[in-house]
Amino acid sequence: MAGKNSAKKILSGTVVSDNMDKTVSVQVIRRYKHVLYKKMVTAKKKYLAHDEKNEFKVGDIVKIQECAPMSRRKTWFVKEKIGESRR
Predict the structure, then answer these.
(1) For residue 74, how far is the Cα from the chain centroid?
(2) What is the spatial distance between Cα 72 and Cα 23, in angstroms, rounded to a whole number?
């Protein structure tokens, strides 16, 4: 059971879809060294995040924070916008 000290995860990623109402799809890219082959590996994962005012657009770099489930797949909300896409 989580107490009031439990930390919520915060990730940063790029908005890849804003077609849904009050929801954005955020792609988080994570790089790590493979245990056996010692090569850098890029892992990508998409999260659905709550966007109450529909203010974030495709290409925005945002921070998302974990929260209580809002639907079957949406358990994150957009905390803040960090910047624009570099592309």
Answers:
(1) 11
(2) 13
State percent of the chain over pLDDT 90: 86
DSSP 8-state secondary structure symbol assigned to residue 60:
-
31 phi and psi angles, rounded to 5 deg: -115, 135
Q: Are 45 and 27 in contact (CB under 8 A)?
A: yes
Domains of the chain: 10-53+60-79 (2.40.50.140)
pLDDT tens digits for 2-19? Answer: 556 668 999 999 999 999
- Sign of torsion over alpha carbons 24, 17, 34, 39: negative
* Residue listed under structure tokens 């925005």: 60
Amino acid type, 38: K
Cβ atoms < 10 Å from Cβ of 4: 4
